[in-house]
Design a protein that fits this description.
The protein has about 260 residues and is mostly helical. It is built from nine helices and two strands; from the N terminus they run ααααββααααα. Helix 1 crosses helix 2, helix 3 runs antiparallel to helix 6 and helix 4 packs antiparallel against helix 9. This is Flagellar biosynthetic protein FliR.
């Protein structure tokens, strides 16, 4: 029994070493990193993917545990995993930006609800678009593509040589602007119609100063906003698919390049 423990101990250490990158990616990635996902489920998924990695790659874990070299290797593994998930998380912030723009133009910017992804309050419209993006992410097998990228990352960035360069960190930081650009383009159809409505209401206020704009403008903004969202939703759905594909492509090009 004692000899069996000596044999299996290196394999368990190798499994735990592989789970560091996998677990960090799942924590930072959308869907897997939701606060509603229990910790035992994340650990089970990390261990299952780690077994898959060990079956397809030859991983050599550090021989000693409590050394500076091992600590640096663990930090490097965690950074690679966090970078993979963080790039996807940036793109998933686009619906929240679009919800802020649309909600403010409709006059319901105060309508917030709890975001199950982060546990914080977010605009109701942004939450609706975020749920649609999550469903499209799953329907397009984005979660499977993420798992495939995690497995392939051990070939592109093998343990021991997994440090991200300064250029990769810079590109990941610059990719943060994509969330604002994608959110603006996602809200553009509805925002344009609401802008036209505001222009009309402004002209009415100048031509009829006695008109109560609060009694007319808010219901009109709500009605036009709901109708415009219903009309523009097919185009918004197509662009949500573009966001999913761009996020997966960016995660591969920025981290695994």
């Amino acid at each position: 029994m004692f000899g069996f423990g000596l044999v299996i101990e290196p394999q368990l250490w190798t499994l735990l070493f592989v789970m560091i990158r996998v677990g960090a990616a799942l924590i930072a990635a959308p869907v897997f990193g939701n606060v509603s996902v229990p910790l035992p489920v994340r650990v089970a998924l990390s261990s299952a993917i780690a077994v898959l990695v060990l079956g397809t790659n030859t991983i050599q874990a550090p021989a000693e545990i409590f050394t500076l070299t091992t600590i640096m290797a663990v930090v490097a593994e965690a950074l690679v995993g966090l970078a993979l998930g963080f790039v996807l998380q940036i793109a998933f912030a686009a619906p929240l930006v679009a919800g802020e723009i649309i909600g403010g133009a409709m006059g319901i910017g105060f309508a917030n609800m709890i975001d199950p992804n982060s546990g914080r309050s977010s605009p109701a419209i942004g939450q609706f678009l975020s749920i649609m993006l999550t469903l499209l992410f799953l329907s397009l097998d984005g979660h499977l593509v993420l798992v495939d990228m995690i497995v392939r990352s051990y070939r592109a960035l093998p343990p021991g040589a997994a440090w991200l360069g300064a250029g990769q960190f810079r590109d990941i930081a610059f990719f943060g602007g994509y969330a604002f650009l994608a959110g603006l383009l996602l809200a553009l159809p509805v925002g344009f119609l609401l802008l036209c409505l505001n222009l009309v209401m402004g002209m009415l206020s100048r031509s009829a100063p006695a008109l109560n704009l609060f009694a007319i403008g808010l219901p009109a903004s709500l009605a036009v906003g709901v109708v415009s969202i219903a009309i523009a939703f097919p185009a918004m759905g197509d662009y949500l698919q573009v966001i999913v594909r761009e996020a997966l492509a960016a995660a591969q090009s920025l981290v695994l390049a």
